[in-house]
Amino acid sequence: MKSLLKNAREQKGLKTRELAQLAGIDQALISKFESGTRKPTKDQIIKLSQLLEIDYETLMIAWLKEKILYEIGDDDLALKALKVAEDEIKYNKTVSNLKLSTSLEKILKEIDFLKEKLDSFRQFDSFKIKQALELEYTFESNRIEGNTMTLRETDMVINEGLTISGKSMREHLEAINHQEAIGFIKELMSKSNSLNERDLLSIHNLILRGIIPEDAGRYRKVQVMIQGSTHMPPQALMVPQEMEEYFIWYEINKNKLHPVILAAEMHERLITIHPFIDGNGRTSRLIMNLILMQKGYPIANIKGDYENRMQYYQALEIAQTKKDKEDFFLFIAQREKESLERYISILTQ
Question: Which SUPFAM superfamilies does the UniProt entry name for this protein (predicted)?
Fold first, then answer.
């Protein structure tokens, strides 16, 4: 692992001091990691893999190998112990693996077929189409949270810079901020598999900018309750740890799950932690759509009308209180399928 870290740092043209500054880790520790006299923590492994653009799985395996060798050395029973541990890990992996229902597998196959079809029509795509669909997404995502602007009013605020009589300043800012947040996640799309704490906080900062500036881009410091839900989010002091585990889960699973399931999982996990005072729903949906767009899928637009909103909330409630995510996965998959079908129909008109 020490050579992995040193080689990657040198390839990036970084001095140990510069890497230490970027990672928020003491320079002396960086030197010790590279010489092999100290082992990074799991949190430090994540930071270093992102900053040095080393595959997380490769770095994690090297780290675990050294940790195991340090613990067991060349003890005569070491190989037998490793075999027992291997069997137990395989058992636990089988037990914890995500099982997809027949209904989910069916809709995911339909989505894959539609995506292939969409890819064959990409030459007919245009900025105007994307702009119209992104405007609809901003309108619907804000409508879910109670914004009363119509689609036309949202367009007038965002694209014409007009003020709508009878609508609050907050509603105007929600429209402008959400559209800017879409622009930001489109910038992130160029970074392969990018998703880290800095990006998440930047997205949230854009969502609440000018609305609750003191909480924009910051985790909550107080306990919260979700209106209309029996789910109780974790205490504020647990949020940083929960978020650390959130990003670890992502790094481990980002290339193992179907993109629609990965996106839905990251949405549900974030909204369940509820790390912010406000803006959790919009941020969670943006994270979901960042993942989908990075994988070449169109935005999954959840409509804000009463029927769709209630179905969305009920599926989330079941996932949060009964630990059964089937309904939520199906709901998101259906929205993605609808988005693909609509996109294809627009391009082939």
Answer: Fic-like, lambda repressor-like DNA-binding domains
Residues serving a catalytic function are 274
Q: Is the dihedral of CA 328, 333, 334, 340 positive or negative?
A: positive
34, HSE (Cβ side, Cα atoms, 13 Å): 18
Domains of the chain: 2-93 (1.10.260.40), 110-347 (1.10.3290.10)
CB-count burial class (<10 Å; 0-12, 13-18, 19+) for 83: exposed
Sequence-distant (≥ 6) Cβ neighbours of residue 176 within 8 angstroms: 157, 158
Non-local CB neighbours of 251 within 8 Å, separated by 6+ positions: 46, 49, 56, 60
Taking the C-alpha atoms of residue 217 and residue 206, their distance in angstroms, rounded to an integer, is 8
pTM (two decimals): 0.76
